[in-house]
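Appendix B. One record, verbatim.
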Amino acid sequence: MQSMPNHAPSITPIKADLMVCPRWIIPVEPAGVVLEDHALIINSGEIVDLLPREAAAQRYVADTIETLPEHVLIPGLINTHTHAGMTLMRGIADDQPLKTWLEEWIWPLESRWVSTEMVRDGTLLACAEMLLSGVTTFNDMYFFPEAAAEAVDQSGIRASLGILAFDVPTAYGHGADDYLTRGLATRDALRNHPRLSFMLAPHAPYTVSDATFDKVATLAAQTGLGIHIHAHETQHEVDDSLHQYGERPLERLERLGILGPQTLAVHAVALNDADITLMAKHNVQVAHCPVANLKLGSGIARTTALNAAGINIGIGTDGAAGNNRLDLLSETRLAGLLAKGTQQDPGLFPAHSLIYMATLGGARALGLQDQIGSLTIGKRADLCAIALDNATTLPVFDPASQIIHAAGREHVTHVWVDGQCVVKKKHLTEISHGEIYAKAKTWENRFRG
């Protein structure tokens, strides 16, 4: 008997821009998951699928296939606090207390040199360093955000830029009203940029008046913008606030309507139990900057207590002028080690929770959790590939632990932002080394003069 021919219709493969095939994928959502031999599918800058590699090869045909046989793929890292333009001041006045560092070194230097050119050049240098370190998004607080936006546009990184409020005149503006007006105008001009968002950025309780905070609170309510502010960075700041206002900085911010789930409190080192309760009450976010806190002698943030209170924590580097590095992987590792050591509990902040803080926790802190922070279908394709085939990372029993405790930024090989490859085989694709080297040397000579 003759068999009948099989007339089952063949399935037409789905076209995509990019298929990334690493050995391991840590999607962050769902929590604690490590996928082996899977593929991530990207089209038009969006994650469209995550599935086993064999199924991906049958279902999709991609313009580019990136095979990374000994790599782990994670969401791009998110730096929740920095001053990118200050990267040109890296190493100036090291080993000084924060107040001395600011008032006797940084602010005088800024008063002479801060400009659109300085901010653009410094931010481009910062973008280069962050991209090579696996950072795909940074949250900035500095002057001339329009100049920072030029560097963001050139480099291909994603950024949340600060609309500064500061009750001191500078080359950028005559005072807080001028800063806010200029910052809002920049935001309006760039509102359609696919990789830019904005936050209101009153500098700190000790540099911003009650009247300015009232304006910031009103603007936040009107625009829906988040608020990015230094808070409780040192005990000196708390003591000065008690002397001047009769209340702790967070108490004052609550009175002025600044605290809320849209508020990102940077550093949050000098906290007592009542402060943490107050932050939890208002669902305040925290940008934890452990290296800067240690280097400037500010102290060690109570991250264990913050975490226990349900407060979301993202990781930040602060500026390279105070930290000297924009290295989020080392920052994240230190955050975990400080918690374990100070609490004498090795079980605190396991590797997956630290990766969360450096990715989705950061996205939540910036109000961008629906767009970035995890390798989830429908989110933007911001990705970081880390090679684990080096003598310093072998053998690999747990890729998540290896990222935190063995790997470093030197193991980052590929980075994508919005589906575009901005670091390929450890080389920047949008920024030339010669350009940033020349700009950095020019500013070094100016500052020395």
